[in-house]
Amino acid sequence: MNQTVKAAIIGSTGYGGVELIRLLASHPQVEVTSVISSSTAGAPIAEGYPHLTEIRTDILDDVDPALIRSKADVVFLATPPGIATKLIPSLLAEGLKVIDISGDHRLKSRSEYETWYKKEPAEQQYLDQAVYGLSEVYGESVRGIDFVSNPGCFPTSALLGLIPAVKAGFIDLSTIIIDAKSGVSGAGRGASLGTHYSELNENFKAYKINKHQHIPEIEQVLSDVAGQKVLTTFTTHLVPMTRGIMSTIYATVQGGHGTEDFISLYRNYYEGRKFVRVRGNGIWPSTKEVSGSNYCDIGFSVDERTGRVTIISVIDNLVKGAAGQAIQNLNLMMGWDETLGLNFVPMYP
Ligand SMILES: NC(=O)C1=CN([C@@H]2O[C@H](COP(=O)(O)OP(=O)(O)OC[C@H]3O[C@@H](n4cnc5c(N)ncnc54)[C@H](OP(=O)(O)O)[C@@H]3O)[C@@H](O)[C@H]2O)C=CC1
Ligand SMILES: CC(=O)N[C@@H](CCC(=O)OP(=O)(O)O)C(=O)O
User: Fold this and answer.
1) For residue 186, how far is its CA from the centre of ligand 2 (angstroms)?
2) What class of enzyme is it (predicted)?
3) Nearest ligand by distance to the CA of 325
């Protein structure tokens, strides 16, 4: 008989949490038994999200580790930075499996976290314990463990687009530039000056230039893969669309490799990993082609004139960039097929 796992979601009323609810509704081996909110406990979740009417009749629970343990085996945290740091020690002590979607446990250095997030870091033992769940790269380390730190949305697209080339020495590590764009759901459900309609509509803007909290996350992983310190230039832009991330990556090619060499390298690296689709020569991915799905699509062009490669990597920030990859990690933690409950065809158009 197939094993079923009971799941709780802290931060159920945010975009990441509500996407977990949507995706888990069709997972064959997970039942969501507790949806949790710190500010609206006691209210039906469908009150804030009428699209869930008659799909989820739950009343939101309060954040209470013992209550969560009485209802669930695994807990997802889709909470703003600084919250998971405080909650996870007691959730792990209750014997729960934990998947942290926030950035609180991605950086292994406490001082780096403090510098980039401007918040009190988690205790070192929890940073050491958390396995960074970039599924296609570190999936084997996730199998059977209890605590996963889910990657950031931008790092997921940038790293999947870069790692095979970095590992194989196809690019000069000192030349990497990542030019990234995100839909506005990446900023969460809370309203803010920067994300309200008249600020965003028919506008295109860069933000957090050279200060984005995903810079040290990307550099930490690239350095790990390369076996030497790697620095990058990473710039984020807000696009007037709801979902999607596109990372356009530039680097100087080493070893005289052409576009077809990059395609073969990436196809070999991601062989058997269903959620990374490497495009053929001249077939560029767009965000709509992965929307609502757990896919990361990647395309390449080497410019023989400049000696640089352009790599385009797209994901849905709420799926492969958050809830979808978190479920992929749960599947790996449980020793299941990593694609379970995630076989969504992208929504197109
Ligand atoms: N949106 C995205 O595309 C991605 C987001 N992430 C990360 O996931 C996390 C959630 O993001 P997102 O869903 O967009 O954010 P939202 O702002 O949409 O949601 C945040 C959620 O956290 C809850 N929350 C706030 N304060 C607390 C608290 N003290 N204790 C418990 N719960 C709390 C909120 O509900 P309430 O206040 O009622 O408790 C709400 O449900 C963030 O860390 C974000 O960086 C990662 C990848 C992609
Ligand atoms: C569009 C937008 O604002 N996106 C957010 C992504 C937030 C996120 O996922 O970051 P952590 O999980 O690392 O906190 C940003 O750029 O900060």
Assistant:
1) 6
2) oxidoreductase
3) 1
